[in-house]
Automatic annotation (TrEMBL), chain A:
This is Dolichyl-diphosphooligosaccharide--protein glycosyltransferase subunit DAD1. The chain crosses the membrane at residues 62-80, 86-106, 126-144. It is found in: Endoplasmic reticulum membrane. Component of the oligosaccharyltransferase (OST) complex. GO terms for biological process: protein N-linked glycosylation. It comes from Aegilops tauschii subsp. strangulata (Goatgrass). InterPro entries: DAD/Ost2.
UniProtKB/TrEMBL annotation, chain B:
Its cofactor is Mn(2+); Mg(2+). GO terms for cellular component: endoplasmic reticulum membrane. It comes from Aegilops tauschii subsp. strangulata (Goatgrass). It is a multi-pass membrane protein. This is dolichyl-diphosphooligosaccharide--protein glycotransferase. Residues 441-490, 744-769 are annotated as: Disordered.
Amino acid sequence: AGGGGPRSDPHRAGFTHCLSSKRSEGARFVRMPKADGDAKLLIQSLNKAYAATPTNLKIIDLYVFFAMVTALVQVGYMGVVGSFPFNSFLSGVLSCIGTAVLAVCLRIQVNKDNKEFKDLPPERAFADFVLCNLVLHLVIMNFLG
Amino acid sequence: NAFGGVLCAFTLILIGVLAFSIRLFSVIKYESVIHEFDPYFNFRVTQFLSKNGIYEFWNWFDDRTWYPLGRVIGGTVYPGLTLTAGSIWWFVNALNIPLSVETVCVFTAPIFSAIASWATYLLTKEAKGTGAGLMAAAILAMVPSYISRSVAGSYDNEAVAIFALVFTFYLYVKTLNTGSLFYATLNALSYFYMVCSWGGYTFIINLIPMHVLLCIVTGRYSSRLYIAYAPLVILGTLLAALVPVVGFNAVLTSEHFASFLVFIILHVVAFVYYIKGLLTPRLFKMAMTLVITVGLAVCFAVVAILVALVASSPTKGWSGRSLSLLDPTYASKYIPIIASVSEHQPPTWPSYFMDINVLAFLVPAGIISCFLPLSDASSFMVLYLVTAVYFSGVMVRLMLVLAPAACILSGIALSSAFDVLTRSMKFQLSKLFDDGPAISGNGSPNGSSASTVNTSSSKNEKTEKSEAAPKEKQSKKNRRKDKEVTESVSVKPKKEKRLSVLPLEASIVSTLLLIALGGFYVVHCVWAAAEAYSAPSIVLTSRSREGLHVFDDFREAYAWLSHNTDVDDKVASWWDYGYQTTAMANRTVIVDNNTWNNTHIATVGTAMSSPEKAAWEIFDSLDVKYVLVVFGGLVGYPSDDINKFLWMVRIGGGEFPHIKEPDYLRDGQYRVDAQATPTMLNCLMYKLCYYRFVETDGKGFDRVRGYEIGKKHFKLTHFEEVFTTHHWMVRIYKLKPQKNRIRGKLKKLKSSSKTSSTLAAGRKKNPWQ
């Protein structure tokens, strides 16, 4: 939501700016720094907004990031060494992605900004997370071969 | 409220008993025997499991079928059904209740249909409430389509798979409604049970992503959707890969790609929503334009690579059966075996009325009721129904998947209808008795709305004291909720819109008509269960003036085989009878109902279509000792091998080009009378079926085809008849051993014919000579 007037004007200005830049080549040199400035402004505001999130959520985010990096490392290793045995590769990658997904679910449930989960105690959310991880890793250990 | 809970539980128990008992007609009318063909294989596997334990079962290589290839049972069977029945048998015997494996197998299906109706109750309760749940459960307990595949004795995958399907959907909808990770875990485990049970699990893993996509597209994305779907994909794929028959197909085949695609889309959407929450709207718009311009190029590149990968495989990564579902004409063009199975044909219109009866009318009403109001759960129901209707239109076997959807939506429709009607009746009746003398000009909206308030409060007291009809009790919970809502809302004109009320006569007549509709449904279901779907198809009956006549020829033939042949003798027949032969006669067969090797089946088909000598050579190369054919001409049994013969020709001709279908048809017509072609009259199937048939009535009149046969008096040179059952339905022949000496004249004839055959031009080479 929000006001219609001040919000739509820069958007329309940017749009016509794009159009005009398509027609004249000289305007292109003017467009790039503006886009750069836009990107920098974007990244700055993203950083600022992210810094405001509570610490426990940031820990969960770090865990997700670690899991995804591990998955990427495994995929890279598979690219180098080959995919035999395939079940081990699959179980390794899917365990990383699986625990990342479960951590994201935990983050959703624990986040105080989420109105839907405000009467779910965080201990229950964590217990569900542990249970689901248990099942996931039981399956992984069976499938690892 | 406690009274409502107890009543609900009691009704559920009654529904379970109903579901169990309506499936017992076959046991009462015939006997406790396994039906059809596929259940015999499952029964044999369960026997092996109960005798040898689970590790032997997991690693079992069966050398008694598909001789000489064998079959890896552990890796090609869906273990859910056999493991379920095996555990029930083990548990019951551990309690010292001495049930045999056969009894457990026969009664597995009715037990699980009772449990399936409870699962339907749970699923519908999540969508619309308790009243609708009870209605849907009662309807599912009786729906003929489900009865046909789960009658006592029909020991097939669908018996437990339908329960697993409905229960998985229930857990998915429950996770969607509550957002609890615990239910998401249970959902994945229930999906694992479904993958173990039936190849139709691909329906789940494509329907749920479709629903997630629908929610995203219609703007109903929420964090509960993420929790419901994302863990299911990862855990579900892993669990599906654990089942040996699926294995790596869980990540490599196109049937699963939809789930991964929607997984990625869901993450993109979730990320977008997250960023939207972080940034101000202006910056968000800027981010979107940047991302879209860059991201679109990357997206196109990835999609192009994926499409090229998939398009490079000839079937585009789909299996034959799935392709025939998507393109109904695919099987008839490329895979005659799939096209020849009668279950895989498209259904006719009357079969819809036969199988889901009254539900065909109630389902559209249910769809409308789902839209008022539309929630995630009710949109899922509608999507499930629409896809099920499409697939049931492609294959008659999939009417079974349509059955739960139709029951749920009909339950919702009937429950909403009874809701409105009984509410109207109560309102009108209380108006008649209470406010009749007091209010005269009731036409103004204000006056009637005031009376609505008064009567609703007085109705509350009345309902707590009065003895309401059982049907009203089921919707009592819903109506109480309605009344509380209306009393809390103070705006009067709005109340008028919420509570629509019909005139008294209309509501009474409509209620009676709906009850009569339900009565017709029940009568039809019981008739269908008793007459249409209880036949075990291994025992046939017919009514004549003398009473009931029983044809037990199949079991007679298998018993003869098991008593009069050696354990290692190989029996060749058409693939329909393979499972029964291995299970009941305990002999090695060449091909069976698994139909996994088309060339092997084509070999048998070619042998049946060739003249005696060529057929003898084919069978001899396969070490066959006995040949079994099914013949219905004497008693009028229509599903015999002569009627299936054209499929043998087609399948055989698909692999061995010297068998040509037009050779067996006279002017495009399939006949076995005097007008038949010489190829037809000389082929092995004709000879084995009609050998000495003329001795029965002197004229050789075939009761199924309706005319006299063409060649009546002939001798068999390479086969000898060893057994024909009482009604000539099964005939068993033995291969004659090769002659020890070939006389001189014959030797010269043989060598001269050989040279002439090599010199003959333009003749198709027979690979067996």
